[in-house]
């Protein structure tokens, strides 16, 4: 008993099996999350180590290189990058996608702990985190109100941030533009000279007079009392009275030689929201966490916990939010999905001319789609661009088998079979083999996808799983639920209406003309195949004309503006330039909000960034790319600063420029020359677009030169000289302080010279030091400053010095990569190389991976077809539809101006399996006619192919029309949908048209040749 016969007899069981799939799907749909893409965040571990006072060269040599070598032995590393800046070393270890981040964290922690002994004694303990130190937040919040910067910073850090950090999936919460509270002792150099004081004496006085110590307990008999030894100053007015020195019976107090201010830390960063001062909070997620779930929880806590507890006059607003695009993308795909279902139903009604038959076939859609929702839930997938596209494709795929089964049952009923149960069983059994064969072909193709690695593997994995289970379920439904429903509800119309007659007349005309055309083409078999071969070869030329990119740039409704001024400018200069950029942003009608900050992440005051959020898609006429292009033109008029716009990165924690690479080499000075020459070469090429190189080696600096012999003769040591200069110019945190009202906060006390007294190198003459004999000496008598340059940040990639390049090319990404490689071969000396990262690297991996899938899937399809048809030769005939489909896809991409990217490649992979269905239908029935009716080859083709014309057209048109909304999609995420839709539509259209003619020609030639060989062999044996 076959599966259709079993389902017809046990109709309740057939219905319940489908109902179970629907139930699980409904449950899964209510629990499944939303995201932009499958989980493609690389597991990244960041190691941050502080070496106070060290310059970048010292940090790189003493800390960074040791950490790099230690972590480089951890298995599963993709790359290691590092930044050595003044006093800070940051090493980011990026692992392969399949590496468990908790395991990676544990292994890195072990390696780093083993290396701590080799670090300098004054280096602080390394801080290891599960997120990249400069990872881009998925959301920025703005804390604003009628408070000063210190109060806003306290609210952001101590009230808002702790609640955000508790949210599952949040790796860290960055603070942008905030300034922590500091009690500042601003030394007056002139007053200190007048009182004959030195820095060391002030420091010693604070250390000896501002004291707190544990007192223990005083126990007497049966009673004990705690001893309080808190002799710190708890009021800044009292701190003024701290005795620094006694001179001739006169007490010199701290307030006599300094101004004591309850103020803020050094002015090294700022932030503004919509042009107004703010403190920003950036929510950074852990790799693999769900963006939408995190943002929804943040918004929930804002409403229920955070805003109710804020002081009056303070508010928290959302400055940027990646979930807006994600939710709009999913909504847009859901609308596209609904339209695709309606178009598919229209095709079925048009061909079947029966509402009841259309409803029977349509039953396969909810059962199949809800079953894959259940699979996605159990597999941990989300509703994202890739899984939703897979579901969209399934609209056209899941009804294919149902159409074939119902159409054949319908044909049996029209032939005069009066028993509906017998007609349903016989009709389903006749197409049992082609239905199974076509489904196994698709499953085999996407089964090979699971061998792919990297980002492309993650993209294809969820897509493939959804398609495989959707196809498997649709086959199950077509062979169980559809025959059962047909046996009970399928009815032939007793009388056709006028519309039905017109439609049937049109189809009959199409059948007749196809039969005539097929007969004519079979007389020109060789010529037809040669012509088709020439067209296929010509398509390779078109393929070479297509540009290549990893993914099309989407209109996400938000982008990033990066700003960089020359090294050495102050934050006041950068603030003026940022205001100019903000003014340009404020003039754009399409921009809703912008959050801008200086010194965010890197701490460099010559760098700034702005996160721009556009108005909703329906409220603006210009696209994101058009707005960015307009802004880039406006920014070119700004002087003294370079400004770049870029879309958000496709991968979390990375910049958004499509072309990113590192120029690497063993020598830092030579790297600078090589990178500059490389920059000139690239900038001269038309079409390379905006180029940003992050090699920061020309930081203006003042080198303190000490005459050590003279200093020794005068009784001064180098440490006292350096310490005095460090305190007066750089500042030093020397103690802690808390208020009388005891809020528990221990504020740092910072000792520094008055800023108005130290502005030029000559101001060193204001600094005095005391020698061993108690004599005060002016420092300019033994030391002076020399101007020079030093690295601001030293970048390394995979244990070599590197110059990172970030480019948004105007040409295709593939062409830009080819040009960069060609220039590298000409310019780079021995020992230097380039390493692609980001989308450029993944595009090359994608091309290799897709070629691998094409080869493996073709072999698997051949094996499936050979097994099903019990023939080594007929699978080649069936697979002839594959190159025809690729030819059509390439033509469509070229005509519509689309590039080769991950979406169009997905479409081509899918076409390999889909187009074989039509060939299977033609060849299977032809074989049956030859076997059962003893027809000749051409006679069997002329009899079978016209019968299969309608199901072939129905299945093809269903998929084609289901993809029309995607191809015409202009909403959020529509660019990827368009590439996929165009690929499927043109590939299916060309392959369907040619398959109906070329496959019969190939079958006729091959089977005819086989028969001739068999006849000759038989004659030879008889002879």
Question: What report would you give on this structure?
Answer:
By secondary structure, the chain is an alpha+beta fold. Helices cover 54% and strands 19% of the residues. The strands form 8 sheets. Strands 1, 2, 3, 4, 21, 22, 29, 30 and 31 form a 9-stranded antiparallel sheet that branches. It has a 6-stranded antiparallel sheet with strand order 14-13-18-19-17-20, with helices on one face. α1 (3-9) crosses α18, α14 (385-414) runs parallel beside α17 and α30 (902-932) runs parallel beside α32. It starts with a helix and ends with a helix. The mean pLDDT is 85.
Secondary-structure topology with pairs:
Layout: H1 3-9, H2 11-31, E1 44-50, H3 56-71, E2 77-85, E3 88-95, H4 101-115, E4 127-129, E5 139-145, H5 149-165, E6 170-176, E7 181-187, H6 189-194, H7 199-209, E8 211-220, E9 223-231, H8 236-239, E10 243-247, E11 250-253, H9 254-257, E12 258-264, E13 270-273, E14 276-277, E15 279-285, H10 291-306, E16 314-321, H11 323-352, H12 355-362, H13 364-379, H14 385-414, H15 420-430, H16 432-449, H17 454-479, H18 481-489, H19 498-522, H20 525-545, E17 558-564, H21 571-586, E18 591-598, E19 607-614, H22 624-635, E20 642-646, E21 659-665, H23 668-683, E22 690-693, E23 699-706, H24 708-713, H25 718-730, E24 732-737, E25 747-753, E26 768-770, E27 776-778, E28 783-790, E29 794-797, E30 800-808, H26 813-827, E31 833-837, H27 838-869, H28 874-878, H29 881-896, H30 902-932, H31 937-967, H32 974-1022
Parallel strand pairs: 7-25
Antiparallel strand pairs: 1-3, 1-4, 2-3, 2-29, 5-15, 5-16, 6-15, 7-12, 8-9, 10-11, 13-14, 13-18, 17-19, 17-20, 18-19, 21-30, 21-31, 22-30, 23-28, 24-25, 26-27, 29-30
Helix pairs in contact: 1-2, 1-18, 2-13, 3-4, 5-10, 11-12, 11-14, 11-31, 12-18, 13-14, 13-17, 14-15, 14-17, 14-31, 15-18, 16-17, 16-27, 16-30, 17-27, 19-31, 19-32, 20-29, 20-32, 23-26, 27-30, 29-30, 29-32, 30-31, 30-32, 31-32
